[in-house]
Amino acid sequence: MGRYHYVFPRWSNLLLPTVLTVGGIAPLYVAFMVAWGFSPETTDVGYAPIQPVPFSHALHAGELGIDCRYCHNTVEVSAHASIPPTQTCMNCHSMIHPDSDQIKPLKDSWETGRPIEWVRVHDLPDYSFFNHSAHVNRGVSCVECHGRVDTMEIVRQEKTLSMGWCLECHRDPDPHLRDPDLVTQLEWGWDMTDAQRLEHGQHWRDVNNLHPSQDCSTCHR
User: Fold this and answer.
1) What phi-psi label fits residue 113: left (phi over 0), alpha (psi between -120 and 50 degrees) or beta?
2) Where are the alpha helices (DSSP H) in 94-146?
3) Closest of 125, 95, 94, 123 to residue 109, by C-alpha
4) What contacts 24+ positions apart, CB below 8 Å, involve 188-194?
């Protein structure tokens, strides 16, 4: 699936008869459709590129229970979560299914020293700054931005990652916070009520004395 897949809301079709009969609102309708068509909701959500190696997060993170930090090992200390080098993959696959055709690109990378050209899924604009360590160390789980990656065969973008979406969390962080020790347990909280989750989040906001900034310079430097 390409990144630019334009999908307009179905209810927009209901406006067409009015637009055709009341010409004065046509420019507003067109402007709205253009704005919607280029919004992150339309262009980014659902983006799921095919990778050079068919890596299943559902198998590795879900069924096998490999912690996110084993592969993305800088997420707690750096702004970037890091893409695992071939060495990390070969720690297991030098012994597990070493002759599988599916991991041939991995073996080629290992033998030649050329890195695998993974396709980036979650890609913020260059003018936006996001620090992974600042979030995960304060109890914002991977699932809040990336969804249930541990159930995905092919990783896809589930959130818009737009400025408005980020600000919603900064203005009301409690529903998105948890014990920092639980940030990579993506299934955590499924059996809790909304009220229980909110109370838990409020507790950790108080513990960490969190007051998320809404200043432009926080993300635009």
Assistant:
1) left
2) 104-112, 132-136, 142-146
3) 94
4) 188/141
Dihedral class, residue 106 (left if φ above 0, else alpha if ψ from -120 to 50, else beta) = alpha
Contact 89, 83 (CB under 8 A): no
Contact 132, 19 (CB under 8 A): no
Query: Side chain identity at 155, as an amino acid letter?
Result: V
Model pTM score: 0.80
| Res. 174 pLDDT band, cuts 50 70 90 | very high
Structure-derived torsion over alpha carbons of residues 84, 79, 69, 208, reported in degrees to the nearest 10: 180
Q: How far is CA 207 from the centre of its chain?
A: 26
Could you tell me where the DSSP H helices lie in 60-193? 68-71, 86-93, 104-112, 132-136, 142-146, 163-171
Token reading at 15: 């406006």
Indicate if the pLDDT at residue 2 is higher than 50: no
In single-letter form, the type of residue at position 133 comes to S
